[in-house]
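May I ask for a sample protein chain and its fold as tokens?
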Amino acid sequence: MAAPSSWTGQLAGISQYHLGPGFKNTSGNAQQQVRVQVNNKEELSEIIDVVGKILGKTEPTKYIIVGAHRDAWSHGAIDNAAGTAILLEVMNAFRKLLADEPAWHPGMTIIFASWSGEEFGKIGSTEFAEQFGHELLTRAVAYINIDAPVVGNHTLYVAASPLVKKAIYESARAVDCPSSIHATQRDDGDGGGGVHSMYDQWLATDSDYDSRPRVNYHNLNSDAMPFLLQAGISSVSASYRYDPASSRYAKAPPVKHTAYDTYDYFTTMVDPGLVYTTAMANFYADLILRLADSAVLPFDVLDYVSVINAEVTKLKTQHGAELKGHNISLAGLEFIVSRFAAMAEQFSLPVHFTPLSGQHADPFHTMQDAGMKILHPTKGIGQYIMDAEVELCRLHYQHNNEVLLAVERAFLVSTKTATTRHVLFAAGEEGTIVFPGVVTAIEAAMLGKGSWDDVLRQVAVLTNAVQSATDVIRNAYAPMALKQSSL
């Protein structure tokens, strides 16, 4: 049988590919057979995770976790020697920072992890997440995954939890564009020019519907899976990729997981001079520092609202007719999502707080935009804010951070299958499944392998999770002057 176009290869001299059944008979022998000899050796083997940390100064019990797997199929230059090299260089940069500025420590604890057993099923990271699950659930702020960080030179490709988009954009703006093709001069707003940032190139080559660079759903076939899906920890992974319009290998190089993934190939064909690898190291270092050393986490709940709204619309478009035919309405879900959106909007509004002295208003503009100003006050702020007032500000912003973390955790549900605890995302055979409980229940019902009552239950589970996220913000700020009358 002739292969469809999606299964057609590119080998020279082959004009038509076939799928079978059977084999093409070129010898006249209808009993052709193929003998396959498998030489796998089964044995028990110990794997070792290597973990180190820099203790936080302000919030030592809050963790920014940075991980890269060091195991590979064959040589593994792209996947994942490059990621391990970046992890080591970032660690060395922080070591030098601590040595040069002995009084400095990050606000939150930074944990660096070199995972083993990733290629065999994310074993190292999964065992770590399971062993320290309770501690991570209450203390982990974000997980940053460094895996195959450079596979091309077209643009930045980011997969992340919606909550972390703001931090990612800020870090991309802080790093110069590594591409000589895109690194033209720009007006910095002060009359002078400057090199394009990584953000500028990313926006020009892969923008999303909201006129910002595209942030994709997380690749859950990675070490991010146990952190996001089991513990509700916002996760990030980024790499430079090929142009998807010009290469069928846009997301994976042709040498991936082969003996050809060598240092020579990487430095000759992928990243001569390690220019993009250096840029990715700078990006990851900035993101780690930005998360670990900000008084208020650069997270935005409104980005979660946008994703949920878009996916509810997609669900109605794809399965609205089937749901209506079985008297299943999404009206309740849409109503709760609208309440979540309204509360998130209030949460992002400027909040002015009166210091203990009652003489000065909060000098920082919004709960979401304090940056590093508390931990590193600029000249002049300390002249009119007493130490007690600074401490009250710090406690206020720490409370804000706890709310942000609780929003992500609100989308976890109790289940016997750890990889499906997150009601918004799950790992699928062909990528991330959004609203996995609802979608898989619909597919099972349509195939006669499940009931539409199961679909109704899954819609209720999703609705309750969004309600929980809404309540997290409402309950945390009930004493504050949030406009709740319409909510």
